[in-house]
Amino acid sequence: MSSVTTTGLRERKKADTRAALAAAVLRLSSERGFDHVTVEDVTRAADVSYRTFFNHFASKEEALLQPEGAGRPGLAERLAEQDPALHLLDAVRAALRTELERFEADAGTWRARFAVFAATPALLPRLVELSASDERSIAGAVAARTGTDVDADLYPALVAAVLTAATRVAVMRWHRMPDTPLAAVVDEALDALAAGLPTP
C-alpha cells in the first residue's frame, strides 16, 4: 500500500472518529441536556478512549460548537472568493450560499445543535467569542472588497456586525421552522436589511 493511500486512510479514520465524537456529544446533549453530559459519557457512547477524545477536541463545548474543526473556511474566506465586480450584498449572498447548503444538507443535525444552544445558557460566552472572531474576519474581507481600512473606518466592522446578527437571528428562527428552507429565511433577513429595516 502506498504512503499516499495509507495517509488518506489514516486521515479518513481520524475524520470518522471526530464525527462520531461530535455526534455523541450532540445526541447525549439532546437527550439529557448539555450540562449533564461528561466526556466519559461521550467516549463510552462513541466506543473510544478518554485520551482519544482529547486528540480531537479540547472540550465537549468545542465538539458541539466546532464539530468540523476551527480550520474550516467560513464566510470571510467565501466572501474573498467572490467576483470583485459584484455589489457587496450580492457577494455576501453568494458567499453565504455555500454555508447554507452545508446546513441544509444535514438539516436535522443542525436543528438539533441549535436547539441545544438555545437550551444551554452556559454556552453563550463561547458562542459570543466565536461570533466575535467571525465578525473580525468578515470585517477584514469587507474592508478588502471596499478599499476601506478595517481599523480606521467604521464601515467594515459595522457591515460585519450587521451580517453576523442577521444571520444568527435567521438561523435560530429557522431551527424552529421545519418546513422552511434556510436560504429563504436568510434572504428575508438580508432583504429587510437592504430595504433599511422598514416597519412591518
Summarize the model shown.
The protein has 200 residues and is mainly alpha-helical. It has helices at residues 3-32, 39-46, 50-56, 60-65, 75-80, 88-105, 107-119, 124-146, 154-174, 182-194.
Show the helix and strand layout.
Elements: H1 3-32, H2 39-46, H3 50-56, H4 60-65, H5 75-80, H6 88-105, H7 107-119, H8 124-146, H9 154-174, H10 182-194
Structure overview:
It is a single chain. With 200 residues, the protein is an all-alpha fold. It has 2 domains: 3-65, Orthogonal Bundle (Tetracycline Repressor, domain 2), CATH 1.10.357; 75-194, Tetracycline Repressor, domain 2 (Orthogonal Bundle). The chain has helices spanning 3-32, 39-46, 50-56, 60-65, 75-80, 88-105, 107-119, 124-146, 154-174, 182-194.
